Amino acid sequence: MKYLIHETLRTVNTDDVFEFGLTEISKPRADEDFYQADAVIIKNQKVISRLKPSGMTEFDVVRGFLTYVGINLRVLPREHAVEFELYGLTLDQYIPLTKSIREMFDE
Questions:
Q1: Which of 23, 33, 87, 93 is most exposed, with the fewest beta carbons within 10 Å of its own?
Q2: Residue pLDDT, tens place only, 68-90
């Protein structure tokens, strides 16, 4: 799969590797008013979660992907008993869901 955005996180307490990816954004022929892509979460090279973010613009698709990743970064440690090394950042600082993408780019 070819990714537009791809991030890999290794865990501190296990050998697990989590990947978050967003495929290239396209306009499906069935509904040409919306852009869409595939967003996946992969654990040790096996897809554990998949979503099709869509929206009126490509920016909406990327924002949907970031929200999807942010929510799952909060859920994964509880469900899979893992600890991520985020270089001293907490999960809230890594991808804050309360901020807009514009605010994150401005920081």
A1: 87
A2: 888 887 787 777 777 776 666 66
| Residue 18 backbone phi and psi in degrees, to 5 | -110, 135
Structure tokens at 4: 């537009």
- 3-state class (DSSP) for residue 80: helix
φ, ψ for residue 86 (rounded to 5)?
-110, 30
- Cα separation, 92 vs 98, in Å, equals 9
Give the separation between CA 97 and CA 75, rounded to whole angstroms.
13
Task: Please count the other Cβ atoms lying within 10 Å of the Cβ belonging to residue 12.
Answer: 9
- The answer to whether residues 44 and 29 touch, using CB atoms and an 8 Å cutoff, is no
If we measure between CA atoms, which residue out of 54, 93, 53, 97 comes closest to residue 72? 97
Rounded-to-integer distance, Cα 51 and Cα 100, Å: 20
